[in-house]
Structure formats: structure tokens, C-alpha cells
Amino acid sequence: MTGRLYGAVGMAGIGASLLALIALHVLDPGRSVMDATISEYALGDYGWLVSANDLAVGTGIIAIALGLRATLAPGKRVAASWVSLLIVGLGFLVGAVFETDPRGAAEGTLSGAIHGTAAFVSVFTLIIAAWLLRGAFARDDHYRPLATVQLWFAILITLGVTALLVLFELGPAGLIQRLLVVVMATWALFLAVNLGQEESSGYAS
């Protein structure tokens, strides 16, 4: 597959996930946007939409990671960047399979523990991938014009994740998570749109 094809799959996955999220808020309006996390919708009547969202996001991010592998010139930093993004995508796929526990539940379940661990790994790996890609873009002739924009995305993602972790039990976790999702979706679409604009001689097949 070429970078453009990977980018098309990435855009389709992220677009489908956004539609699923909008549908969740319309179909299940009783949850607080300020306090309820997106994963908590899985405990309601439309839990399948949460799984569909995670599946779509995971598929889209994996496609973007493979597209970066195909279009960036090879190197250790490049390999680390797209592998990190691949791990983020796989984390969402795991989250699609295992259901979260309600916030404040007295006893956790195995499914909830796996979901939480996958989310934790994905979130931290997301920060690593964002910063590694900034460096990879800065060193690649075709992607260098995107390095400054990637830097801002890396900063916003780092701030968003930090705020979510610090304020998860103290503040409006739901609102912070939704803002982070908007940043992530915008970043993923930015990467997908720019995949293969100028194919490099890296891994392209």
C-alpha cells in the first residue's frame, strides 16, 4: 500500500470514530459531559458504539503508523516513532474488546483492569510518539515543513494528558478527556492527510 492509501484508511477510521462519539452523546444524553468519561458510555445501552469508536480509532491510527513507515526515510528515530504510534492503535483495539469499570467502583473486574492498563499505555505512548515524530519530521526532507505544526501538537497532547491525569479524580475529567480527544483526532487527521503527499524512498512498496 502507498502512503495515500494508508492515509485514506486513517481518515476513514478517525472520521468513523468521531461519528460514533457524536452519536453516543445524542443517544445517551443523561451522562455529564463534565464528569463522565467516554468509556463509561460502554456501561449503558449504547456500549457497542464505544467499542465501535475504539475499533475505528485503533484501525485509523495503525493505518497512519504504517503509512509513516512507508513514507518516512528509514532510521532509528523513525522506527521508534511509528512503532510507538502502532502501540497506541493496538491499545485502542484492546480497549474495544475489554469493558471499563464504573468510576468509584468498590471492586474492579479483570476486564476493567485490562481496559485501564491499555488506556494507560496508549496515553503515555501517545506522548512519546508525538515528540518522536516531531524529531523525525525535522530530519526528513519531505516532512520537514510539517515539523513546526507537529511540535505544537506534541505540546498540546502533553498538556492534555498531564491535565487529565492530574485532575482525573479532582476536576472535570470528562471535559478534559473530550478536549484531548479533539486534539488527538485533529492530529491524526493532520497526519493522515499529509501521508504520501511526497513519497520518499524509505520503505514505500
List descriptors:
Rhopdopsin 7-helix transmembrane proteins, single chain, mainly alpha
Q: How are the SSEs placed, and which strands pair?
A:
Blueprint: H1 3-27, H2 47-71, H3 76-97, H4 110-138, H5 147-167, H6 173-194
Helix pairs in contact: 1-2, 1-6, 2-3, 3-4, 4-5, 5-6
Characterization of the model:
Helix 2 runs antiparallel to helix 3 (about 75-95), helix 3 runs antiparallel to helix 4 (about 110-140) and helix 4 packs antiparallel against helix 5. This protein has a single domain (about 5-100, about 110-195), classed as Rhopdopsin 7-helix transmembrane proteins (Up-down Bundle). The chain is built from six helices and no strands. The chain has helices at about 5-25, 45-70, 75-95, 110-140, 145-165, 175-195. About 70% of the residues lie in helices and about 0% in strands. The chain starts with a helix and ends in an 11-residue tail after the last helix. By secondary structure, the protein is mainly alpha-helical.
Compose a concise summary of this entry.
With 205 residues, the chain is mainly α.
Q: Helix amount, in percent? A: over 70%
Order of helices and strands: HHHHHH
Average predicted local confidence, pLDDT: 86
Structural class: mainly alpha
**Terminal-residue CA separation:** 7 Å
Q: Strand content of the residues, in percent?
A: under 5%
CATH class: Mainly Alpha
Q: What is the third-level CATH name, the topology?
A: Rhopdopsin 7-helix transmembrane proteins
Number of helices: 6
